[in-house]
Design brief:
transmembrane; EmrB-like; about 65% helix; membrane; about 5% strand; MFS; transmembrane transporter activity; mainly alpha; Growth Hormone, Chain: A
């Protein structure tokens, strides 16, 4: 097995590139109060400073992933890091809210180019046996950034000024660019025609969807949100129709036919929806109910990060021993227990029940996320690693945004319902408003009522989160595949001809072929490909047409002529067995016979394989067999 000797250094660079994106967004929340004062930003300005990044980022993710597959994943990541670093410097120099909003939008472009590239490069650099460990480390770093961002932001604000939360990105981005250029090999999928209409539809649809989700909690059902939702629906439906018909789609929709990809995608969405209300509710509980400072609030989330870091490694080991399904289900059950613990927090309980719930959630996420993301990305062909990673990121971003919108509505409505009758409208609007009224009027009873009402509302919100996680657990249990037995190591020596092999005539030998194999006039060609040769195919049709073999046998696939290539120095096919109803009439001179294999649609040729010292030789057989 030819492993990249620099792969762990490459992983470090990928983690660093991901970390700078996560930390920046989390640290910015701490910088809002001083930033508001220095720039004279109003509430609408603050909202756009926060949302301009996520709007551009979410809208461009799929396009960025597709571009990385076409033009090179390392190249796209470096360009993204450069944009992110330059825009961060511009953010530190901003003198007006408009300048900072523009800088944040450009940072969103850079982030969209970087994040899908990191995971797709990881997939191409690490072999399948080491991939769970690498993905666990990548996921743990993201979790550490979520928790460490507010802490770092608080330290920077305390010792410097609000611009420091942007300035720190510049050297990190520069180091990542240099390290990527020196350490990383370039990787890309085979050349395919651009899909400009698909790009326009995906950008329009995702941006409109995220904008609608952001605006809905503030404005409810009004003309703007209805228009935004309608644009999102029309654009995304149009995107799906177009991608299913175009010859070179930006997103191969057939990925969703794979149960691991579809199950992993939907499970991730439900989990992220559930997680969407976590920070929203707990940060207010810690600050308004328990009276913590912003810095102490950030430190209070450390248990979830530590547990995730520890259990990410265990999750990777569990995937290796028991498979994605068991690891995902076990982890999601623990996450559900965490939400159940948080839902049971009562007024006056303090921090410790919260800490226990956070530990459970971190441990469960550490077990489940490597398995769920691993199942999803394991179904993606190498040539589509970039867009597959972008789909993963888009699913998580959309799920989190949807979770904030839905669970934010649940939290607000539950708080209003829990407040006693007769309280003022302002006090019923939010716990922050209620405490402000109580402080202004000296009404300690109102403050106590508001804290109790918010604690009750938080419990209701986490019960809703629990429902989403339970649904994700059921999906993982019944949809994800169990552990797959890796194929045996291919033999390298010649094997004796099988006694039941059919005679081969008119075979076109493909020993030295490096392109499509010619067929007799009027014949439809197919190519028999061992899995070790899958990376030599020009298109991901292999994944769609791959068929399972009996336990212990070498998997093979029938590939249409447009994507057929002769494989040189690949594994012999002596382990080939009958390939269910998809199989064609295959007559391997040096392999086992295929019995009652059903004919291939439109095929008038057969496939023969013989073994040479250097691997498999594929021949196309004429009608005279």
């Amino acid at each position: 097995m030819n492993r990249n000797p620099r792969r762990w250094w490459i992983l470090l660079v990928l983690c660093l590139s991901t970390l700078v994106l996560v930390i920046d967004n989390m640290a910015l929340n701490v910088a809002i109060p001083p930033l508001t004062e220095d720039l004279g930003a109003g509430p609408q300005d603050i909202q756009w400073i926060l949302d301009s990044y996520i709007l551009v980022f979410a809208g461009l993710l799929l396009t960025a992933g597709s571009l990385s597959d076409r033009f090179g994943r390392r190249r796209v990541m470096i360009i993204g890091l450069a944009l992110f670093g330059v825009a961060s410097m511009a953010g530190t120099l901003a003198e007006t809210p408009g300048m900072l909003i523009a800088a944040r939008a450009v940072m969103g472009v850079g982030g969209a180019l970087v994040l899908p590239s990191t995971l797709s490069i990881l997939i191409t650099v690490f072999d399948e046996d080491e991939r769970p460990k690498a993905m666990a480390a990548w996921g743990a770093v993201s979790m550490a950034g979520l928790v460490g961002g507010p802490i770092l932001g608080g330290v920077l604000i305390a010792h410097f000024w609000w611009g420091a939360v942007f300035l720190i990105n510049v050297p990190v981005a520069a180091v990542s660019i240099v390290a990527a250029a020196v350490l990383m090999p370039e990787s890309r999928g085979p050349w395919r025609r651009p899909d400009p209409l698909g790009m326009v539809l995906s950008i329009t649809g995702m941006a409109a969807l995220v904008w609608t989700i952001i605006e809905f909690p503030k404005n409810g059902v009004d003309g703007r949100t209805v228009t935004g939702g309608a644009i999102a629906i029309v654009a995304l439906i149009g995107f799906g129709i177009w991608e299913s018909r175009v010859k070179s789609p930006m997103v191969p929709l057939r990925l969703f036919r794979d149960r691991d990809f579809a199950g992993g995608s939907l499970s991730l969405t439900l989990v992220e929806v559930g997680n969407g209300g976590l920070l929203l509710a707990l940060t207010q509980y810690l600050q308004f109910v328990l009276g913590y400072s912003p810095l102490k609030t950030g430190v209070s989330f450390i248990p979830v990060a530590v547990a995730a870091l520890v259990f990410n490694g265990l999750g990777a080991a569990l995937v290796g021993r028991l498979g994605n399904r068991i690891a995902a289900v076990a982890g999601l059950l623990i996450v559900a227990a965490g939400f159940g613990t948080l839902a049971g927090v009562a007024p006056g309980d303090g921090y410790w029940p919260v800490a226990i719930g956070l530990v459970l959630m971190g441990a469960g996420s550490g077990l489940a996320m490597p398995a769920t993301i691993g199942a999803l990305m394991g179904a993606v062909p190498a040539e589509h690693a970039g867009v597959g990673s972008a789909l993963n990121d888009t699913i998580q971003q959309a799920g989190a945004a949807l979770g904030v919108a839905l669970l934010g509505t649940v939290l607000t409505s539950s708080y209003k319902a829990a407040m006693p009758d007769g309280t003022s409208d302002q006090a019923r609007e939010s716990i922050g408003d209620a405490l402000a009224v109580a402080a202004r009027t000296g009404d300690s009873t109102l403050a106590h009522q508001a804290r109790d009402a918010f604690t009750t509302a938080m419990g209701t919100t986490f019960l809703a989160s629990l429902t989403g996680v339970v649904a994700a657990t059921v999906l993982a249990l019944f949809v994800l595949r169990g552990r797959r037995t890796p194929p045996p190591t291919p033999a390298t020596s010649d094997t004796a001809p099988a006694t039941n092999a059919a005679p081969v005539t008119n075979a076109t030998n493909a020993t030295n072929a490096v392109g499509p194999v010619d067929t007799p006039p009027g014949a439809e060609a197919v190519t028999l490909v061992p899995p070790t040769g899958a990376d030599a195919l020009a298109d991901a049709v292999l994944m769609e047409d791959t068929v399972d073999t009996t336990p212990g046998a070498e998997a093979v696939a029938l590939v249409p002529p447009a994507d057929a290539v002769a494989l040189v120095d690949k594994a012999p096919t002596e382990d080939a067995v009958a390939m269910a109803p998809r199989a064609g009439t295959v007559a391997p001179a040096d392999a086992v016979g295929l019995g009652d294999a059903a004919p291939v649609a439109d095929a008038v040729s057969s496939v023969a394989s013989s073994t040479r010292e250097n691997g498999s030789v594929v021949g196309l057989v004429g009608d005279g067999v």
